[in-house]
Amino acid sequence: MGEYKPPFTITNKILLYVSSISEKIGCIAAICNFEAKPHLRRNNRIKSIHSSLKIEANSLTLGQVRDVINGKAVLGEQKEIQEVKNAYAAYERLSEIDPYSIRHLKQFHGIMTKYLVQESGEFRLGEEGVFNGNQCIFMAPPARFVLQLMDELFAWMKEAEGNVHPLILSSVFHYEFVFIHPFSDGNGRMARLWHTAILSKWKPVFEYIPIESQIEKFQDEYYEAISQCHIAGESTIFIEFMLSQIDKILDDISAQINEKNEYLPEAVQKLLEVMEYDVPYTSNALLEKLGLKAKEGFRRNYLHPAIELNLIQMTIPDKPNSRNQRYVRT
Description:
- There is one protein chain.
- By secondary structure, the chain is mainly alpha-helical.
- It has helices at about 10-30, 40-55, 60-70, 80-90, 100-110, 145-160, 165-180, 185-200, 210-215, 220-230, 235-260, 265-275, 285-290, 295-310; strands at about 130, 135-140, 310-315, 325-330.
- It is built from 14 helices and four strands.
- The protein has a two-stranded antiparallel ribbon. The chain has a two-stranded antiparallel sheet with strand order 3-4.
- Helix 1 runs parallel beside helix 11, helix 2 (about 40-55) packs across helix 3 (about 60-70) and helix 10 (about 220-230) runs antiparallel to helix 11 (about 235-260).
- The model has no long low-confidence stretch (mean pLDDT about 90).
């Protein structure tokens, strides 16, 4: 069992991505302390959950996902609302995951599929396929082989830890996990959660980088890469795809951070830090969050500069003084 090695090839493209990602993640960790930015952490986590569920056909909007997480009443299918609650519970315990433990994998599948799946936390007993919508990408191995295949995969991971770069190892695991399809439901969500967990053990900053949102933007390419690997019999194409997406999302994160650090007035930075994305705030709510009392000073030093920089938008731009006016971070 310990001699099993998932087939893949280290290409020049993979090596270039590993180098690029390592450099970018080092720069991000050096200039941005996510621990000191709870709103940024929370926003990115909500993005991760929304995107990972959307890939699996959950129809709730980003705002609705945020409301469910904040304990607000949401009109929607109970199953989809429960998926959000479960995913949030799992992601909130991300730092507790030992990604090299099958016991932890089953435990977190139980969290991710609570009240939703009869075989929650247990490997499947029936046959399954990998689908993109209604299109079957491929049929998974027979259920009788699942335990052996998962034991072999985790044995390889433990042996590869320290020898195979985490960026490569996590991508190999992601593909092999999707191929084995060990659970009756929730495999995609678990594959993406575990990918993030492996990377977070390497660099903790990955806990707050929404890789899932990047995959969701390129969902068809994601499934196409999986399909091509199934035909090729190895995961090289999928590794290249995942590394390219991680490289791209780090550019977005870097742009956000540099934008804040390089030219924004301190007052505007403080205002942005207390605002969650896509949430409408009244001026009084923002005053309270900032601990301010002077409305005129707030408008002059915080609000108006942020609006002029297109970092905040009014919900009723034609009536700036409307009593129903709200402000949204873009």
